[in-house]
């Protein structure tokens, strides 16, 4: 390489969703959002909540790309974060060393960060329980990574098979992590209302009416589209 790359490349200014929109999505769950986005919202299922009782999050993404075996970009993201941000820390899926432990999590909590989502690993599980910051990660590994490696903050990243930009909305619970592009929030919110209404109606029929088969399945089984062999 002709020149040494910058140690960090940072985009400080980006648009976050307004509070009303965030609160609208906070009433939903990851499954509803996935349905509203045609099943194309969720990160890889290996990314799971570290703390079972801290598994519900909703907030704007502050992205950072740490790269392999490094966390300088995550440290910079914590320093730049605004209250309520969800730091999305991409590691290219590297789980050979932890990208965050209890001390960094404590700093993020003190900064007002709502949660951290990473395709990398965590460590210091006992300490993380004491800190109480919601974290979704792909693994646990006691190895520690290095700090001095090129990274980015505020630029688009790939995490868990999903493209995530700063200002997108992160909604996660025990079913997994979903990302909603900021420029589609209004569209997906309207579709989300339809999904929620349909889910509640079906739940009511299952519980109150004892529904044991979907109407469309009953109709299909009685149609000429099915061949019965006996």
The CATH topology label is Glucose Oxidase, domain 1
Structural class: alpha/beta
Q: Helical element count? A: 7
What percent of the residues sit in helical stretches (DSSP H or I)?
A: 25-40%
Main beta sheet strand tally, sense and closure:
9 strands, mixed
CATH architecture: 3-Layer(bba) Sandwich
Q: How many domains would you count in the coordinates?
A: 1
First and last CA, distance: 71 Å
Walk me through the structure.
- This protein is of the alpha/beta class.
- The protein has a single domain, classed as Glucose Oxidase, domain 1 (3-Layer(bba) Sandwich), CATH 3.50.30.40.
- Helix content is 31%, strand content 23%.
- The protein has helices at 19-26, 30-36, 72-80, 102-111, 125-131, 185-208, 215-221, and strands at residues 8-10, 48-49, 57-65, 86-90, 98-100, 115-118, 121-122, 135-137, 139-140, 151-153, 157-159, 162-164, 169-173, 176-180.
- Strand 3 (57-65), helix 3 and strand 4 form a beta-alpha-beta unit.
- The longest helix is centred in the last third of the chain and has 24 residues, at 185-208.
- The N and C termini lie far apart (71 Å).
- The mean pLDDT is 92.
